[in-house]
Structures are given as structure tokens and as C-alpha cells.
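BUG: 3D viewer hangs when loading the predicted structure for this chain

Environment: internal workstation, default settings.
Expected: structure renders.
Actual: progress bar stalls at 90%.

Input used:
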Amino acid sequence: MDEFKSVIQSQEKNEGKGMKIMSLFFLIPVISFLYTSIESQSIGSLFGAGGFLVVVLLLFFLGQFNKIKYNKLGSTPLTLTPSFCTIGSKCNGSIEVSRANFNKVKVLSLTSWKYTRVSSDNYRYEKFWENSIPITLQSMNDKTIIEFNFIIPIGHKPTYKSFFSKNKHHWEVSFEFVESMESITRTWKIPVKI
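C-alpha cells produced before the viewer hung:
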């Protein structure tokens, strides 16, 4: 039965970690540039190296902020049954939240995104279609399960992420709520086939 399910981690899970790793990756060349600037006693390059160091530190602290924000809700795996959605067929899902009696989410959003390459390294994102999904909450011990089901109407495009394509397409399920005056979002990319 498990081969008909897939567990999808939220997009937010690795955002903070990725920023911190990127900042550490750029830290070594920036420190080298700073050291060379100090050795050559060049004021202009010292200011440039200092500016790069500030950007790297800002990236690190933004990553730390995103990690702290992610940890407020924790891991929220989405289980999809069947393991991919078929256009025109019913798809069931559940999201596990590691909080008892979690009731801040009232509805999920199902969104179809199209992104088109406008230059060699730039994409334009466009919301193609969106719909609300009603949910049912099940509390068990120290966690809450958000259960839902949906049908992607016939006529919509499946997930398409060909590497060389100028037009790409993906689907996502998401929710957002406010806690302690801070917006917390979770987004999962789901596979959709014809």
C-alpha cells in the first residue's frame, strides 16, 4: 500500500539552511579578499571587501531567521495518495503538524504556476489557476493531521519541468496563518500527471 503514497517535505524546510550554506561558501573568498586588501593597504578594495562581508553576514542571518521561523511550526510532511495526482481524478492528502489541537488553518490553497524564461537566467512567475480546498482536522496525542482531498479539473496542464524548456509548469498546495504577529507559510510542490 505504501508504494501508492508519497511523502513531500515543504519548500520552506531547506530555505534557511540553503542561505546559511551559501553564505559560508562565499565567506572564504570574501575573507581572502579582505586579507589581501589589508595587506595591500588599499582603502578602496578594503571598503569593497567590507561591503561583500556585510552582504555575506546578512545572508547568513537571513538564513538563521528563516530557520527560526520554520522551527516555530516544525516539520510538516504532506502525504499524497496516490503518489501523484491525475487530472480529473480524486487525490487525497494529509499534512502532519507536530502540535496538539492545531486549528489555525481553515483552508488550503491549490495553485497552478506557470513560469516562463524571459532571459537566460530570469523567469517570470504567473499564477495560472487557484482554488481553495476544505480540510478536516484530526487530533491524535501530540499532533494534528490536516486531511483533504481535491480534483484538478480536466483541461489543466500537468507538471512540466523539462530542463531546456522556456515554459515550465508546477502545482502546489499551501497554507498561511498568523501567529504572534508573524506570517507562517507552508508550501508543497505536488506532482500532477495527465
